[in-house]
Write a structure and sequence with these properties.
Length: 197
């Protein structure tokens, strides 16, 4: 049960274009945006931040961006965002085997060396306290330039906001994301937690 009730989409017609874009991206309208709409400036700022972080002309391919956001959410333990990122990963063509085995990325041979670095660093960056080391940067620089590294940390920062927001407010998980997560990632420890109805 959410701690703050989301507003009704029908009462937010001024955001129709934004909501339609979100629905096209996710396959559904995330409830967290309906809660953020209680503070319109926040909703608009977060939507803009998300657009900038996830834009198609970034340095990292979308599949790598989703590995970063998925790993960051797993480090934070936000089951709402874990389910969203797993669902999105599937939508952008990331191997379902990678989605299912992300918890063992360090040892699983399905992940490339550069993916392992991204997964490690994004998990370190979204841990509390932050666990990013100089050695992490040495490894990152083997595969990525400074612009790509900034993109990685922008994605982690974006997810840190979403993780704190959704876990704190117990945002209700939408049925498409819940169903995907239950079918695909429960074996890796995922559960709906406080995001159920």
């Amino acid at each position: 049960m959410p701690r703050i009730e989301p507003l009704e989409r029908k009462d937010l017609m001024q955001y129709s274009d934004m909501f339609n874009e979100l629905e096209a991206f996710f396959g559904f309208l995330p409830n967290d945006y309906l809660t953020m709409a209680r503070k319109p400036g926040l909703l608009e700022a977060v939507a803009q931040l998300t657009n900038v972080c996830m834009e198609d002309n970034g340095k990292l391919p979308m599949q790598m961006r989703l590995l970063v956001t998925y790993s960051a959410s797993r480090a934070a333990g936000c089951n709402y965002c874990i389910a969203h990122n797993a669902t999105l990963s599937d939508r952008v063509g990331l191997s379902i085997d990678k989605v299912r085995n992300i918890h063992s990325y360090e040892t699983h041979d399905i992940f490339s060396a550069e993916e392992k670095v991204l997964l490690r660093v994004s998990a370190h960056a979204n841990s509390i306290p932050n666990a990013v080391t100089d050695e992490d940067f040495v490894e990152l620089r083997k595969y990525f330039d400074d612009d790509a590294i900034v993109e990685v940390f922008s994605l982690v920062g974006m997810m840190s906001f979403y993780n704190r927001w959704n876990d704190s407010l117990a945002t209700s998980l939408e049925l498409p994301a819940k169903n995907f997560a239950q079918e695909n990632i429960t074996e890796s420890g995922w559960e709906v937690g406080n995001h159920g109805e």
